[in-house]
Structure formats: structure tokens, C-alpha cells
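Sample log: aminodeoxychorismate synthase.
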Amino acid sequence: MPEFPLFREIIPSPSVEETLALFSERDHLVLLESVRRHDLHGRYSFLAADPIQTSLLDTPEYGVDPFRDVKKWSEQFKATPHPELPPFQGGFAGLLSYDLGRCWERLPVPIREEFDLPACVVGMYDWVIAWDHQQGRCWVIAHGFPETSLQARRAKAASTCKELSEQLLNQSRHQSSQSNSQLAPQPLEFEFNIESNFTKEEYLDVVQRVIDYIIAGDIFQANLSQQLMTHTQHSALEIYTSLRQHNPAPFAGLFQQADWAVLSSSPERFIQKHGRFVRTRPIKGTRQRRVIPEADLFTRDELRESEKDQAENVMIVDLLRNDLSRVCKPGTIRVPELCTIESYETVTHLVSEVVGELKDDVSFWDVIAATFPGGSITGAPKIRAMEIISELEQVARGPYCGSLFYCGFDGTADSSILIRTLTKQGDKLVFPVGGGIVSQSNPQSEYEETDHKAAGIRAALKSIMK
């Protein structure tokens, strides 16, 4: 067994929600949470804070390597993972905004931005609290970085594990002395105003303009979104707590900075790297779920049999196969799942999976450079679709359609596509919603799809807004 990391199991296992509240004031807090549990892509959750070092890129420019510093740190700080612990045991984590794609492609700059946020924030986290929901277990894990001598590292890692363990155990004792009714959230139902950067008529018009581009032969499809906005004095922690209850997802997350935060209930994985293998799980095709179970089964059948949604999904699978071919060994890219059905709280999706074996000299950072932003939220061909998105949406997407991710000291990595995602700065709260447009698209149906996708977020906001 490797000497590092050091770790302690927390018994009884604390809840993610209670732990998040306990550490919510920590610096550069990142939570990557599987609220909706699944053995393959919803098994683990991770919370980290107080990074040793942080890399920021404010403005993406073509030719700039946003991971220059992180690559240096990756070479300097390495560790062998403990085989009996969850996959992220400390390392790098953070936010990649959609607009970071301008580092690798010559793309137009959007006309305006709602927020003044960095395009990329990556922290190097020495410690992490990790949950294995399948086993119902939780550990605190630490490496003792940035110390370099074994003795100093051992002392620092042991001290960190002791401090975090005591906080979690003290919290557990405190919470067990309270009644469940005291811990339960107290929702308040009321109306609040949501604005969009499009009127309904304007959105129908831009959907038709995408269809016109497709008919003209410019593209096969493009992912178009409208940006919804409201205002609130509630904290990011309060909003995320409500979001995870009303719209549970396997790739949920909270990334909290000094004056802004990203809150996500994403159902979609972007890139997962384990050893020399990578996988991605694009979502294309959506239907609103129905209350009556028997009727909901027809929703699944309707989505499964839709030629429009099948075509949309297959085109993105081909795009991702092409992206991964830049970094994978020839002949290793496979599609083990094509157009399978996955149901969530308010919608049902059509999901596929693409896997490949990486070339020997390729890192996670190289994979991101080859594939970012994800094809499921751009379109095909990718670059032309992104140009059209910039022209028609006009406002920068920011974190939306970017990614929250982790990459361990050993290179093991996982990441989400930031859909069903809110960005908060001051009292402003923005949550875009969108969908893929193909030649068979109907503008009215596409508008209604964005409404269905916003349902879980609206429910979360209604439960806390004053």
C-alpha cells in the first residue's frame, strides 16, 4: 500500500448536506456531488477547500494555454492513489467556462457578458472529504502537500486528517441531539420574476434562423439557449440546498468563490479518465416527464422512437468520436451505448456513451484541449455551430455549458457538462436553458423544451425565494 495519502474513516458517515453547511465558509470550496445515486455514474461525492495554489485565467485568447501552471504542478506533485478509497483523493479541481474554448479555436467574442468572471479557475487541493454512497462510507483524505520531506508531509497530513475528523464528528454529535423536524427544510411557496434575454417570439425566430442555416448547408445542428435571470438575496448555499432536493442529479456541484458561485444539478458527464481510458456520455433528446406512471412509460417510448432525437444524438456521438480521435489510439474508440433512456426528476433523456484508449503521452489536460467545450452543447460541425451560437445568443455563456471537474494527483479525472446550472454574483442569478436544433426541429416545441428543462430549477427557487 502507498504511504500517502493518509486518511480516516468517519463513523457514522456524515451527510453531504450537513458537511457542506459545516465547511461552507472555507476558501474556494468545491463540492462534486452525486445526489441522484447510480453504481456506475452516481456513486461518489467529494468536497474540498483551501487549495494550496490556484490558477486563474480571466480572458481566454487563442493560443494561450490555460493549464500551463497546472501542468507544472502536476509534474511536481504526484501521488499513488489508495486502491480502497474513492477515486478522487486530492489533486486539481475547478471550473472551466464555456468561453474557454477560445483558447483552442478562433471564435467570435460575444457582444456582452452578464458577469465579470474568470474563464478558468483551477485549485490544487491537498485534502478532500470523499463519500462512497454504495457502501455508505465517508473518509477524510490528505497528502501533506506542499511539504516535500516525508516527515513533514506525514505530520501535515496527519494534522489535517485529525482536524477535519474532529469537526465532522463534533457536527455528527451535535446533529444527533436535534430532532429531524429541526433539520428539515421549511419551504416557502411564492411567485418571483424571471426574465429572459429573448421574448418568446424572438426565441422562436432564432430557432428558425438555426434551421435556415441547416437547410443552407452551414451546419447539421446547433445547441441554442436562452438566458433566464432573476434576483435574490439568498446565499449560494441556500439555493444549492434547495436545488439538490428538487432536481437531484448524478453530476451536481457547487463551486463557491469570494463573491460568486456556480450551482449545478447536471445529469451529464463530460470526460472521465481512468488509467489510459476515457469515456464521455452525451445527452441529446429530452421529454417532459408525466405524473401518471403509465403515461410516463409512453414518454420513454416516444423519445426512443423519435427520428429527430435519434438523429440529433447520433450526430453528436460522431462529433465526439472525432474529437477523441485526436488523443486516442487508432481503432480504440467504441460506442458501447447508443441512444439509451435515462429518466430524471422532471425530464427523460436520450443518452449515449463513447469510450477510447488514450495515446501513451496524453494527459487529462490534453483531452480537455481536444474536446472542450462538449459537443452535446455546441453542435456539428462544432466550430461553425459555435460561431452561429455566438451570433444568435449574443451574450457570453460563462460557466453554463462549461464544466466542473476533478483530476487527481495520479491523473484520474471526471467532469460534468454544466447544464441545469445557475451562476450567482451579488443578487443576480442566471440560469440558461437550451436544446439542440436540427432540420426537423419545430420552433414552438424547442421553446417548450427549454421550459421543461427549467422546471427543476424553478421549483428549487420557488421553495426559498422571498
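Observation: Residues 179-191 have pLDDT under 50 and may be disordered.
Observation: The chain has one domain: 6-183+197-462.
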